[in-house]
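User: Some background: our group keeps a shared notebook of sequences we're curious about, and every so often someone picks one and asks for a predicted structure to add to the entry. Today it's my turn. The entry only has the sequence so far, pasted here. Could you supply the structure so I can complete it?
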Amino acid sequence: MSRLYLNICLTISILFSVSVQAQDIRSLVASGDLAVEQGNYYGGAEFYRRALRINPNVPEVVFKAAEAYRMDNDYAKAAKYYNKLVPNHVGTYPLAQFYLADMLKTRADYLMAQYHFREFYESYPNEDYYRIVAKREIIACEKAQLMMFRPVIYDIMHTTDSIINSYYADYGLDGVRDSIMFFASILPDTIDSNHFYSRIYQLDFRMDSLHPEKSLLPPYINLPYADVGNPFYNTKTMTLYYTVSDSLPTRIFRSKWNGNAWGSPEKLSQKINAIGAVTTHPSIVHTDSLSYLIYASNKTGGMGGFDIYFHIMYEDGTFSVPKNWGRREPGNSKFAYLVDTTSRFNTQGNEIAPYYNVLDSTLYFSSDWEYGMGQYDIFKMKAPIGDTSEIQNLGYPINSPQNDLNFRIDRTGRLASLTSNRDDALAEKHLSCCNDVFTYILPEIIIPKTEEEILQEQIVIMSREAEELIPITLYFHNDRPGPGTWDTTTDLRYDETFKTYMARRQEYLKQFAAGLRGEKAYAAQDSIEEFFDREVNGEFQKLRKFMLLMSELLKNEQEIRLTIKGYTSPLNTPEYNLNLAKRRISSLVNYIEQYEGGMFLSYMETGLLSIEIVPFGETQVRKGVSDDPNDRRNSVYNPLAAQERKIQVIAVKFNREPK
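Assistant: Of course. Here's the predicted structure to add to the notebook entry:
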């Protein structure tokens, strides 16, 4: 058999294999597209994942996988796939970096999220909603990190044996503890288990407060082939308000309890359920003089996505015209056109899940626009109905890095509840997939702590957070900064050397994978990606978090002692490497001294902040790291060598007693 014939057969075999693989990828992607189109994001993501196992280097499929995982609330996997597109494919997929930052925020990786929001903001060319949000999120990430440093003291309870929570979605607890409560749960349909529908359940605690009777509301409320949820029980009129979602947008209904059964459901009028709009999250408020219906809707004429509206509810059950919360009424005078009718409360984002507590005259709601910890946070505003005042975040751990909604205080005023898909929620598929109900007990008598007690608690928490970040390892490119010099200092700051190092990622990918094929090439590229993401970038984000903590502690007159140690890879003489280690430490000292316009300088002058330097140079390099200048693949671009070009913050000491 001739060599030519063998070569032809081999070529045909390879081409056939490539063709089959291409067909398999197209088939899997088409199946994924269909699943996503039908709202099955979990299934779509799995099809895309299988396609990427055949060929992981198809950016279009990577982006589709990231989008599907994001829509399925699988934030960790979404971040993984968005990260594969940043920074090399942001020209084609500019929103990849925005959503990467958004997903990192849901994982409480606030400073890394802030980094990517800032990179997106600086590079994104369009002045649209995404750039506006990115600018706000740069600030929000820092505020979120500070909230985690200063938690509110509540024990958020979630019991896995709860009669409410399941491995699916459970939400919207409302009613009276030790009496009647309602909630909604999304479970597989009893007829077709491939379809999930939301249903409202009733819990009756009156016979047995420890083992309440759980029952499904009747089918004329829990309509077949519709999602029924968001219950709110008006104890004064014994009327249940709830929502129905089917082929039409979500609408609000109500049903009155007559003592024996629930009455026929009534869809509220078009004053509330505007045609073509989603109307959801109803609640009723009774003040001394008037009653109100409050809800969220994306009806036309609002400020952004969803706004919060209210109506006066008359004694006959009818309603006034809708009013957008916080919007001034123009009146009928000839100067009406001069009145600013934009809302002083609703925003360009979404305000949803309103609940007004008469006991403290406070509106509780969720927003994805106000500065928060996650996707939706719960906020409060103490003001009369329709009026506005300062908006406050309820803080951590009431809020989480994920979604927090449906805040309620039961009619006794002691039990607070909320709905969240935080990591503690039960999940059949993955973290954050499903909502659960969480509760906490409000104290009968609040004994306020002194400012000194609060300060002491915050200092202990922040000091512990800072200590847990140590050691912080910071990396450098070969012979940087100041290549080829014998200087022991540099004018560069570490954040500047970090940025130029990160810009070399593609150079490292190319050089370390040079000459390799197949799995070996993929493994080499993965090791470089891991090094730049986890080590270079990850450790810099730890440094930024540490600096933020340090600034807060110094503001409270806490004495801080840092110890910094330098290393190098073995390319050059020990004497040269010792000076190189000193230059690298100098770049970090410059970063500290120039941080936020030099805010640490006064603390360094007074001795509250001091730095001890230990430059070891090459003497500390581990065995097996190449010192051959002709083998740059292993002496420069190999992650083992790159891991030696570093400095470390190896120790921090605090004086925890306020002065």
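Suggested note for the entry: The chain has 15 helices and 23 strands. Confidence is low (pLDDT under 50) at residues 8-20, 331-339.
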